Amino acid sequence: MDEILKFYGLKRQPFPRTDPGCTRRFDSTDLKNALGVVRYTLPELGICAVYGDTGRGISYASHCAAKSPAAAGCTVKYIPCCHVCPRDMYKETCRVIGAAPAGKGRQEMITAIRETARSLKQQGRPLFLILDKAQNLPDLFFRDLVAMVHEDFGQENLMLLLLCGDKELKYRLVQPDHKDMYDSLAAHWEFRGFSEDECKSFVRQRLEEAGAAQSLVSEEVLSQLHTLSGKGSCRELGNLMRDALLIGAQSECSVIDMNVIRSAVKHREL
């Protein structure tokens, strides 16, 4: 990637593979609505969810929510959910939030999670628990989440729970077995991907931050980015532009035009 920086005179990689950090975030409609879901749910706590096709920036949105001003007074805990058996998920939740169950049973672990959340709420720094890749949660644990969040008879919420996942999470939420969870949702948002204008603005913002001239990418290329990125997938868009800059630098092309972008598309298809 050094050749990209050198050839185009950039201060840094405009489209890094790693998370650029929330301070350099691009405020897309999806991201703003995801943060709005959290802000809406936070005052009374409860359960909220964001979901959509992979590559739309859902996990990134959860990190931004965790670092947002609205969450500053919370005890934020993040768990990336993997394919695990129910008991391991209860144990992992206890470990992450610092709950100490009286025994090894499922009900004892649920009680410990609730007591920890209640204690943090009483201390004025309520638990904000983010479960990323929540579509992978075991069914039993998924059903028990409602009991962990709600005080007896649903009169009070003990924590803020954000469920993040792909469209499988959406499908799970509407299943009859999870009606209690769906009915408990305070707010939710389905990611739609960048619009055509957002694809252009995202690329322009990243190039400007890196010190590149706006003319580096042709207007014709900008107009095709939404289609070429799988209808606004921020992951695909970043990968495409990173490959285009590398191919452009290797070919000594001062402008990323349609010939360069077509080469990048072919490279992505290999």
Would you give an account of this structure?
With 270 residues, the protein is of the alpha/beta class. Helices cover 50% and strands 12% of the residues. The protein has twelve helices and five strands. It is elongated and about 65 Å long. The mean pLDDT is 92.
Topology:
Elements: H1 2-8, H2 29-41, E1 46-52, H3 58-66, E2 75-80, H4 86-97, H5 106-122, E3 127-132, H6 139-149, E4 159-165, H7 167-173, H8 179-184, E5 185-191, H9 196-209, H10 219-228, H11 234-250, H12 258-269
Parallel strand pairs: 1-4, 1-5, 2-3, 3-4
Task: For this entry, give a set of tags.
five-stranded parallel sheet; 270 residues; single chain; 50% helix; alpha/beta; 12% strand
Spatial shape = elongated
* Spans where pLDDT lies below 50 across 5 or more residues: none
Subunit organisation of the chains: single chain
Largest sheet composition? 5 strands, parallel
What is the count of helical runs? 12
Q: What radius of gyration results from the CA coordinates?
A: 22 Å
The string of secondary-structure elements, in order, is HHEHEHHEHEHHEHHHH
Give me the count of strands: 5
Q: Whole-number average pLDDT? A: 92
Question: What is the end-to-end distance?
Answer: 20 Å
Strand order of the largest sheet: 2-3-4-1-5
| Approximate helicity band | 40-55%
* Strand percentage: 5-15%
Structural class: alpha/beta
